Amino acid sequence: MLIINPQWQGSGFTDELKHGAAAIKAYFKDDLTEVPLSNSELTTINNIKGYLPLLEQTESFHQIIAAAKPAKLATMGGDCAIEI
Question: 18-57, pLDDT tens digit by residue?
């Protein structure tokens, strides 16, 4: 299973990572699953920028993986929290 997670909110208030993920998505086309981005505000909670969108997107990622139960998983895109 190939998943693209265009999560960018944890990298601050710039969305450059989102644009990079879109380029990767265009290359792979239909061969991947995309984690939907949150529309929540980029507020700072518990000293974490973009806390709510990060939480929502992580939950979406978890639900996608739990439903698919893939034998293998590769992720692309995202900030430094993608490995979580």
Answer: 777 788 888 887 778 888 888 888 888 998 888 898 899 8
Three-class SS state of 9: helix
DSSP annotation string for 25-54: HHHHTTSSEEPPPP-----EETTEETHHHH
Contact predicate 8/70, CB 8 Å? no
Question: Can you give the pTM of this predicted structure?
Answer: 0.75
CA-to-CA distance for 67 and 35, rounded, in angstroms? 13
Look at the chain and count its residues.
Answer: 84
Opening angle at CA 67, ends 63 and 69, nearest 5: 115
The amino acid at 61? F
